[in-house]
Amino acid sequence: MKVVMEKAISLQVNGxxxxxxxxxxxLLVDVLRERFGLTGTKKGCGTGDCGSCTVLLNGNPVNSCLxxxxxxxxxxxxxxxxxxxANHLHLLQQSFIDHGAIQCGYCSPGFxxxxxxxxxxxxxxxxxxxxxxxxxxxxxCTGYAGxxxxxxxxxxxxxxxxxx
Amino acid sequence: LSDYxxxxxxxxxxxxxxxxxxxxLYTTDLSRPGMLYGKILYSDRTHARILKIDTHLAEALPxxxxxxxxxxxxxxxxxxxxxDRLIFATDRVRFIGEPVAAVAAxxxxxxxxxxxxxxxxxxxxxxxxxIDAALSPEAPILHPDLAGYEAVYPYTRYxxxxxxxxxxxxxxxxxxxxxxxxxxxxxxxxxxxxxxxxPHACLAEIDDNxxxxxxxxxxxxxxxxxxxxxxxxxxMTDVRVVSVALGGGFGGxxxxxxxxxxxxxxRAARQPVKLVLTREEVFATTPGRAPFTIRMKxxxxxxxxxxxxxxxxLVDAGAYSDHTPGTATHAITMAxxxxxxxxxxxxxxxxxxxxxxxxxxRGYGAPEVAFATESLMDSIAHELGLxxxxxxxTNLCKEHDPIISTQxxxxxxxxxxxxxxxxxxxxxxxxxxxVPGRGIGIANLIHITGFLSSSAxxxxxxxxxxxxxxxxxxxxxxxxxxxxxxxxxxxxxxFESVQIAAVxxxxxxxxxxxxxxxxxxxxxxxVRLAAEEVRIKLAKxxxxxxxxxxxxxxxxxxxxxxxxxxxxxIAFKELVSLALYATGGPLxxxxxxxxxxxxxxxxxxxxxxxxxxxxLFGTHVAEVEVDVETGKTKILNYTACHDVGKAIYPxxxxxxxxxxxxxxxxxxxxxxxxxxxxxxxxxSFVDYRLPTALDTPTINAIYLEHPDPTGPFGAKGIGxxxxxxxxxxxxxxxxxxxxxxxxxxxxxxxxxYRALSSKKDFxxxxxxxxx
Lengths: 164, 771
Known about the structure:
Helix content of chain B: 25-40%
Structural class of chain B: alpha+beta
Shape of chain A: globular
Radius of gyration of chain A: 17 Å
Oligomer: heterodimer
Strand order of the largest sheet of chain A: 2-1-5-3-4
Strand order of the largest sheet of chain B: 3-5-1-12-9-10-11
């Protein structure tokens, strides 16, 4: 019988601190989903190949299935739940809805988080830059066309808003 | 301008906001108090007798709540076409990935540990890894009871062949005698996987009445419910299926997978059990698209007129028949292609082996034969020195032409899609004028929809909102949006006032499901008829108030009025109140649609697929660049043109075309389940390569609208056709670019490189020889 040593850690998720007892080998994706009930972060492969579990760690997109929860201590974690709410959707969310970027929706949270990281870094990306940014995320429904349209349109809207 | 107020508008789909926020709960997200985690032990042998299964160590592990094997499962055979399998292997296993035992435990960690503690003693039997081996006279018989299994159609079955079917039309010998040239090729299509991003998952629990409740994402709630009850040996009233949001279907979530196992675990443990497959298990144990070997022979006159076509298809079924009899019969139905060929024969044999249990994927046998047919068209053109587009135009099928499945073609629009695709792609300007290393290729497609039944009910609520009950799950396509638009249009109410009831086997009317490009056409028709029944009921009530006959009443724009005297009117809401409170409800309509049926007895020899409600047409044009040093192909431009009859939800139509075309590019260039002695050796997204955003061009998606009078508001279907044409269009473009024809998909850089290397006279110039 394996003896499991639990460890108390504190994680900063979507701006709030959560203290939790975890086993040292627990993955960030499982802690987010199962301990905190943040099921918007999806699990598609568990091996870092599909990008569905993408969250932002100190602003950078990471596969949360490849991150030990203990190693996320002291860092800012942003999940899809931080992006917008029904009364005030994030521009990217509205753009995904408007441009056919969402079909089954399982990969959408991962794509939205990658897109947010991209636009935070590069507010006016070219189509090629968008394709490179989302190349680590798999979508089986849309063929990526709607997702690319949505990110381009959101960037344009943000630029216009910034000028005004 | 459209006469419709909702149909034809890209309204906002109901689930989009929740999906954008990550709020939608898929099966993988569900949890229950006291929920256990399930894990399946799969066979690691391709073919072996089971001597002994020892579960003692697993049962003794703290945290384990149930361990089950065949001994704890009903011995009822089940299966979708041929009832040839049990829930767990009993006396022998037939493939790597066949369930042998299962465990429920209070954590996934413990469940995974427990399955590893189950000891199975096997005695290996000689395995069959190829169709040739399975067809040889000395081959061991994998299913000794094959001919005696119950089956939905009286398929011809013998030895390891679970289906041998043939369709014929005209006089084949005469057709070949008329020909100036006879051209024959053999094509291979690799096994592929649906690879939906959500892994297969299921949650089973026992309700207060002792019924088994299974929550899962499914494309076919009615079929899943029937088959689950059959496998469990229970009346359907003791089993309830709740449809949960599904993270991608593509043919991977039809019927049951391991819902029986999850249900048995929940019953044994008396606690809810959730079972989620790992990605490796999804790839290696759930049925993907079967590999096809297709031999095609055509007779053609000097001017390009095709006089005869003979098709022989061999399908590797894997260890159990699953969906392969259906994909094989569908393939021979479509084997003629969208061409008028008076003399045709198509035969399919489905052969059992010890390879994985193959099933079906988007297109259901049609992309396989489309690759062969459309590649062969370019071989003919090459041999005759004709332009591939001109050869196709010469032979296109027309209205009322007979096809091999003994039906007459109707609503034929292949000329329209072809001309539109040629124009949009600039084919005529580009063909023969591209720089060296670049090429352009064309592929046509014919598909069918409108078969098997759909039903629906439409109910008007007290506040004049409308609820549709259907067995159709929206697996991401926008099917629910289409159904809401249809009902809103018929009843003249706002789109937003119509909603879809939870899809639950307790209430959903029978529907064959979200499969086969059929939801818009078949389920849309069922909803249309149900809504029309409600409209007639409302017209009767309005007629009493307005003192006219019900036939003189029009219901539209939120009102009912006398057609010739529109001033005499009553608001829809008031009318509903009258109907429910003064006349007495329910304001309920039911609709039933079966375009072509009931299924006839076999139309060919040993054949079992009925005729179709309507025919779908499309044309794709691919422009590629081939790096002759590496064999790498880049798609530069891509045009996909489809006739959809009427685009009820245009954003959904475009989504299906773009997404289907990209899936087709994966099938054409990357995706292959690689087997070594029956074992999948690439069960991950790294090694089973899906197209990424860097591999795909922008798709020029074009839809034409030539209304089909039998479709709801003229609509046909669009789910599957877009995946049919990319493989041949890309193969033909590579032929144009590099002068080599690859008759095997996927056309990986390695395959193309080898072909280029073995082509002695390859000069690297554009265009084909013989022009």
